[in-house]
Amino acid sequence: MLPPFPETGKIEVPSELARELCAAAERLPLYENREFYSPALQMHVLDQICGDCRDGFDWLINLIRDRMAEQPYCALVYGLQFDEGNRLFVALNRAFGELVARPYEKPRAQLVHYIEPATDIPSSRGGRESERLHTDTADWETPVEFISMVCVRADPDGGGRSRVLDIDSVRDEVKNQLGAEILELLEREPVPWQLAAYRGGGLKWRPVLTEHSICWRRYTIDLALDSNLARLSRRMLASLDAFEEVVSTSARTIEFLMREGELLFSDNRRTIHARTPITEGASDRLMIRSWIRAC
Ligand SMILES: [Fe+2]
């Protein structure tokens, strides 16, 4: 059994503050999801909610920031009450940077992104891509710094449990199981990443690991290699296979079930994440997610 989310990363919001934050959000007009693409509107929503309950809002943001700065580089927040129009969610995210997304294309892409089993990408290697540990936006020139996610409805059968593995654990596992040489290779030798067509396409070369960060989505490297515009040595290809095996079987991965109203913030440079499988067609699991460009 994998270890649960560590107590040190959890934050419990007092019920009075939760009520105040939700009430502040509800004093704002309702906005269309599409309108939230505007950084100015995001900032307006932040200013209004933060202005209405400054001390409590700052207390919460500082705690999330502190938790994300420490292993396992994510924070799990309990006790919040969210408004129907995602205004509180946008404000909390905007406190860490600008919310960014793929261009609007409902239901696959929205700024406040709705994650449902039906919109998951099937993996050519079986299952769903979201079941393999990865960083988000590996197909962007510079991947986003933070991800946040709220559980709206958990899977009734207990599927879709969240998994997170942090960079320090990844480095330890690689060093212990594959050796310092492979660790050094993964830091030193860049690999090709196929950039998203909606970001202009092309390839970006960058290593999988640095001393303090990780970028990992095998699928995105495979797309670059399939394009025939990039090649890797046999040694590097074998190292990527071995790396994938090590991270996907690590006993240091934490696993936990997010329940309704719980909010997860994670550092997308220092964690990889996945979810456990969900029974196809039987689940109405719904999560909302946002990508945050730190600024
Ligand atoms: Fe993801």
Write a short abstract of this structure.
The chain is α+β, with helices and mostly antiparallel strands. The chain has helices at 15-26, 39-52, 54-68, 87-94, 167-178, 180-188, 218-226, 234-248; strands at residues 10-12, 74-78, 97-100, 113-115, 146-153, 162-166, 191-194, 203-206, 254-256, 263-267, 271-275, 286-294. The chain has a domain at 8-120 and 143-158 and 259-266 and 278-294.
Order of secondary-structure elements: EHHHEHEEEEHHEEHHEEEE
Count of helical segments? 8
Ligand roster: fe (ii) ion
Oligomer: single chain
The count of β-strands is: 12
| Helix content class | 25-40%
The gyration radius over C-alpha positions equals 19 Å
Task: Provide the structure class.
Answer: alpha+beta
Please report which band the strand proportion falls in: under 5%, 5-15%, 15-25%, 25-35%, 35-45% or over 45%: 15-25%
Distance between the termini: 38 Å
Q: What best-fitting shape do the alpha-carbon axes yield?
A: globular
Unreliable stretches covering 5 or more consecutive residues: none
Q: What report would you give on this structure?
A:
The chain has 295 residues and is α+β, with helices and mostly antiparallel strands. The chain has a domain at 8-120 and 143-158 and 259-266 and 278-294. The chain is 32% helix and 20% strand. It contains eight helices and twelve strands. It has helices at residues 15-26, 39-52, 54-68, 87-94, 167-178, 180-188, 218-226, 234-248; strands spanning 10-12, 74-78, 97-100, 113-115, 146-153, 162-166, 191-194, 203-206, 254-256, 263-267, 271-275, 286-294. The strands form three sheets. Strands 1, 2, 3, 4, 5, 10 and 12 form a seven-stranded mixed sheet that branches. Strand 7 (191-194) and strand 8 form a beta hairpin. The longest helix is centred in the first third of the chain and has 15 residues, at 54-68. The relative contact order is 0.21. The model has no long low-confidence stretch (mean pLDDT 95). The chain binds fe (ii) ion. The site of fe (ii) ion has 4 residues, from loops.
